[in-house]
Amino acid sequence: MTGESDHIEINERTPFMFSGTKVTDGFGFMLVTSVGMNTAWGQMMSSINRDLNEETPLQARLNKLSSYIGKVGLSVAALVLLVLLIRYFTGNTKDDMGKREFNGSQTDSGDIMNSVVGIVAAAVTIIVVAIPEGLPLAVTLTLAYSMKRMMADHAMVRKLSACETMGSATIICTDKTGTLTLNEMKVTEVWLGKEVNDDTSLDMAVLDLGMNMEEVKQNYETIRVEAFNSVKKRSGVLVKRKSDKTLHTHWKGAAEMILALCSTFYDTAGMLKALDEEERLQFEIIIKNMAAKSLRCIAFAHKERVDEGGLVPQNLEENGLTFLGLVGLKDPCRPGVKVAVESCKAAGVHIKMITGDNVHTARAIAIECGILHPDENLDNEVVIEGVQFRNYSPEERMEKIHRIHVMARSSPFDKLLMVQCLKRKGHVVAVTGDGTNDAPALKEADIGLSMGIQGTEVAKESSDIVILDDNFTSVVTVLRWGRCVYNNIQKFLQFQLTVNAAALVINFVAALSSGKVPLTAVQLLWVNLIMDTLAAFALATDKPTNDLMAKPPVGRSEPLITLIMWRNLIAQALYQVFILLVLQFKGRSIFGVDEKVKSTLIFNTFVLCQVFNEFNSRKLEKKNIFLGLLNNKLFLAIIGITIVLQLVMVEFLRRFASTERLDWGQWGACIGIAALSWPIGWLIKCIPVSGKQLAYHSASTS
């Protein structure tokens, strides 16, 4: 159940066993107490099958934001509708000839109906422009693009929303075996006598000896085998050499248990020496030091005697053995894990290791991986066992959970309990795992990451992302892409809200003052189409940068729109509103044109302002908006397509778009006015604001 195979003593105090348990020693009667979903395994599987139907942190933010924007749009549209209707029926609305459109009973009912329909259409258009219907497209494009690129980085996304959720992660609960380590036991130390042999001498010895196991088996006859016993913690074999009929007893097992049976030992030179108390103490120190380095220490001993008349001993000899040496086995950390852990820490993401291994091994691996510092005070419940965490009261768990960095000897329910507590604390939790026992925690977590090589099918089905190379460094790559997704969505959101705010204000002010909206329904829908669809493609395909990993995680409660975004958004929107209102009220006198050309200038300038503002939206904080521009060819292509489409709209689709042709000077004026958004964007970014403060109060409280 813990994912680690180990021998557990069954007695009167702990009489229960799980199905599938193997008996290695002793005998007894077994009584079935639970079957099916009532077993411990069944309860674990039922927790996997629960459908949580929880919103991701980003989905919750977007829903609140969309609701807020929709309410604002409806309010403005209703106000514009009311103002336009009042102005029309009070005779304050005039046509292009300066005549009143409504003259009471003298006005034809058909003209009244057409005017009212036009007013309603203008109000509906404002609603269409205000509601960010391009946002779902931008989110989907960003997620799909990231999903494709993550596949090349050894991460297969099973659930699209997992891409953005990882960007908000504040804590990663990781397994040890196979994720932080290689899941391959390797010999790292060999002690012959009281000296350790390095890797080079071991390799040379193997090459020089060239041992042929088949030849050895032919020269010896196996007499008796004693299997590993959890009480004695050793296994042995009695063999007889065919050439001289001598009997050889060989033991291997826990170092301290084997050492206690020995009275002599071989030193490094191969000389047989007596194992006195002083020598025994030195070997005990060596064994303790090996255990402190998370090595599984195995000792070897033997005894040789002459075969006495062919009598087979009933038991293997256990006294007066000769100590042969020690072997230290270790499951080493994966290459690059320590660097990956440091990257997570630098990004403000905390790492908690949850394993079924023992406390000493877990602590040593955590130090080696960089999760724990060697000088850190480990007595302050930084490293605990699962049973200890399980026995805490709910209040104690919530109080101490932030101090816990390593949890050893944990069951699947301990891991699940840890995830639930962290989520109640407001964290966005990512969990890695490879075994069936990890499935409940993978399912419960905001984002579950299973291993593609070592992972079971149950673990993969319970996860959101499959790490194809089983490497923790790939988890960091997923974190980078997750933050990139969140950042790209923020870019598009800042851009679209600037468009919406400017369009709403200019139409509202113009409606109050003149009774007409400067941007027609077709023009607003055109702006909505090219700005929503094309801008979504342009801003959703930026690749992750190192700057993203230098910021703290946004977590679960941070607003989607930060103060930095508000600063940029308000500045650009105010500039656009100002320049468009100047054109609305003074455009005819400034350019010496008629009403239709003036309206075309307003429309063209408004669209070109959005084109130039797309460049500003690429970088929310940096002043150099052209940094890395050539790396995103799609962005440049979409900018070009937008300009071409706008040229066609103004010059060739005049009847459809209610526009007039502009000369070179007028086009130059529109481009020059729109280009001023670049220096304005640079200047506004010189104003320092905090990116950490909560800025979108309405979204977080509604």
Automatic annotation (TrEMBL):
InterPro entries per the UniProt record, alphabetical: ATPase_P-typ_cation-transptr_C, ATPase_P-typ_P_site, P-type_ATPase_IIB, P_typ_ATPase, P_typ_ATPase_HD_dom
Residue stretches making up the Cation-transporting P-type ATPase C-terminal domain: 517-686
Lipid metabolism in keyword set: no
GO CC annotation: plasma membrane
One Pfam family recorded for the sequence: Cation_ATPase
GO MF term (any one): metal ion binding
Transport among keywords: yes
Main localization (coarse): membrane
Top-level EC class as recorded in UniProt: translocase
Domain of life: Eukaryota
Compartments where located: Membrane
Membrane topology of this protein: Multi-pass membrane protein
EC number: 7.2.2.10
Keywords of this entry: ATP-binding, Calcium, Calcium transport, Calmodulin-binding, Ion transport, Magnesium, Membrane, Metal-binding, Nucleotide-binding, Translocase, Transmembrane, Transmembrane helix, Transport
Transmembrane segments: 68-89, 116-145, 497-515, 521-540, 634-652, 664-684
Catalysed reactions listed for this entry: Ca(2+)(in) + ATP + H2O = Ca(2+)(out) + ADP + phosphate + H(+)
Family of the protein in this entry: Belongs to the cation transport ATPase (P-type) (TC 3.A.3) family. Type IIB subfamily.
The protein's role, per its UniProt record: Catalyzes the hydrolysis of ATP coupled with the transport of calcium.
Name of the featured protein: Calcium-transporting ATPase
Naturally occurring in which organism (per UniProt): Carya illinoinensis (Pecan)
